[in-house]
């Protein structure tokens, strides 16, 4: 009778390397909102009213001075950047933490937005709110039917 060495690793680690790699690379393990590039974008709501567009960005933890809002070639650019450094000293322990958060979003504006008018921007309770006025409606010239003799 010959003896065969028994490998009991599968009992300790019931998954093989492919399963482990698949698990670690899946969204179940790493939260896609944090690691994915699009996850760093703040959520956005766009509401169209009769006279304006209201655009809201969910960007908690920022200050008003952390935002930059620009319009170029009928594209709205909204960016935010926040740096924070925190140091705590207590007895013999020292802890220093750095924090950095940034985002940039762009949105092509419809032709009905009047980019030459003032944009109202407010930041309150973690929501950046922009109001962009629409162009004045142009009175359409009614269709004229020409009678042929």
Automatic annotation (TrEMBL):
Pfam families found in the cross-reference section: HSP20
Q: Which residues form a coiled coil?
A: none
Q: Which SUPFAM superfamilies match?
A: HSP20-like chaperones
Gene3D superfamilies, per database record: 2.60.40.790
The source's domain of life comes to: Bacteria
SHSP domain sequence ranges: 35-149
Similarity annotation: Belongs to the small heat shock protein (HSP20) family.
Protein name from the UniProt record: Hsp20/alpha crystallin family protein
Q: Which organism is it from?
A: Aestuariibaculum suncheonense
